[in-house]
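[Solved] Which block belongs to which protein?

Original post:
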Amino acid sequence: MDKVPGPGFFAGVTPLLLESQQLTRQLVTALSRLSTSEYATVPGSRSTLDTLTAAVSSAALVSTHLAQAIAVNPLVGVSLPGTAVDEGAIRQARETDARSSIVECLTEALHDLDLTATCCSYAATGIDRNLDQAEAAMSLPELTAKQAVSLAGLAKVTHALDRERRR
């Protein structure tokens, strides 16, 4: 992306701001769904939900930093009439002042985007681990004799069909 202040920078950063807002929306939706689902009853889910909350926060900060970059970016405009000013010199001074602020905003946005990705990765790993542990801890109901016979018959039929398919 072009980091030179002005209309070109504004055109380049605007789609990024809108994408970061979309990312925040998606993370809030995922957090809302998970926190109100059966997953919230799984041991270890609190830590994962907290991590996903951190992802929402850091994604929102990405949007904030990009909005700050837009705010410090000087756009081309003309001063009010009545005073003689050197528009070129004013524009040049505003761009010089804005350059370091824009770089700082983009650096912070990139850092927070990286943090968002890390939090999402940790949350996904936590969800997978928590569900595996919950599944392993679940006790299965005892089968009746009739259910066991039916299950064995189904296994034989499935095995026979599998052999036929391999031929």
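(Second protein starts here: sequence line, then its structure tokens.)
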Amino acid sequence: MASWLSTAIILPIWIGLVILLNRDPARPVSAEAALNLLLVAIIAIAGLPLMHAGQYRWFWHIDHKRGAGRLGVMESAPRFGSERTEPSPAVPWPGWMRVRHVLIHLVGMAILLITFAPYGNQRAIVHLLHRFSAGTASYGSLAGLLFGYVPLALFCLLAMLLTQRQMKRRDAGLLDAEQSLVLNAEVNWLFSFGAAFLIAALLCRFAGGMIIRYLA
């Protein structure tokens, strides 16, 4: 049912976008390029915030399980969505932190759009993966490295830099209960955003790859 509904919604938008983008005959845009633009825009603008909200709630769920002793420190977390979760706690975010969250979301959306929305970029990525991979297995591994592990490492570094000062204050015992809650929430927010961004990037890459493979 979801597949039928999404197709019924996306198909007319796709057709309208093709017509809109081809108003100038001197600069034609292919149907494949229009579909790639549409799917990447949906994933970046709508999908990223929704996935982040789900990941943020899940990170709190795992954090609560560890705090309650129902999940060991070295024990692997359950698969995302495999358990019922409670709403994440209300956090008294400082105003500057709310602004930073908005900026991070906007930058994340912009990176996805700039990287994957141009159809030429998608084709260049496919060419790059084919050129530097030795086969199907290494093709997937290289894609996972470029759009998974490298961004993950960068997000971990960013999260460490943004929370380093507060972490030091916490370790020194200088944070009250409310400040500790904000710090814990910020760590969950940053890492859940990183997870959501990686999923969005992989989805954008997958959409472009499928369009190039089956429609180009």
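Accepted answer:
You had them paired correctly. Confirming on the second one: Residues 87 and 94 are 20 Å apart (CA to CA).
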